From TrEMBL:
Record-annotated Alpha-type protein kinase domain positions: 1-161
Coiled-coil residue spans: none
Keywords noted in UniProt: Kinase, Serine/threonine-protein kinase, Transferase
Protein name: Alpha-type protein kinase domain-containing protein
The keyword Transferase is annotated on this UniProt entry: yes
InterPro entries: a-kinase_dom, Kinase-like_dom_sf
Protein source organism: Melampsora larici-populina (strain 98AG31 / pathotype 3-4-7) (Poplar leaf rust fungus)
GO molecular function per UniProt: ATP binding; protein serine/threonine kinase activity
Amino acid sequence: MVHAACLLDQFTRVVRFRVRNLSAEEHLLLSRLHVVENLVLRQRLDSEGTAQSIRWYNLRETLDGAVPKYITSDCEFAPRHRADTSLGRLLECFTHWTYEYHGRQALLCGFRGVEWAITDVTIMDNTRDWFLQNPYTGGLQLFASTHVCGPMCGVIGLTQQPPYYPVGPPPIQPEN
């Protein structure tokens, strides 16, 4: 999530620099939108004798409002899955920007959150593992073949992407 937060900060600066006619709502979104830090702590409790127990703690920002909900589609990029809100359009452009930022070898998508707090994000990456091994290029291929740029993509200099072709072998061999 730290990687996602750093990319979102950089993307926000790009949008503010290049988009001259942001609406008041878009300014508010850019100033408040953030990725929630999620810390997982493990505590080993020594008990008398040989048995040990482990407790896990998940620490993150308290969120006001409803239970986290999807604020963009779950990594579906075709126009019929387009989010019909300013936040959704901004995050669709962010997904495209992350695709170009990573040299068309990775992207961030599937954002979940409440209001301006992004609680979950999916990272599709052809070059490294992030969580549960993901040397899967299907999401990158789907993005390259179905994403249609919105107005903000063009304003910040993004263009319709060419078909996706993986560069080199996936990071993990299937037999491993």
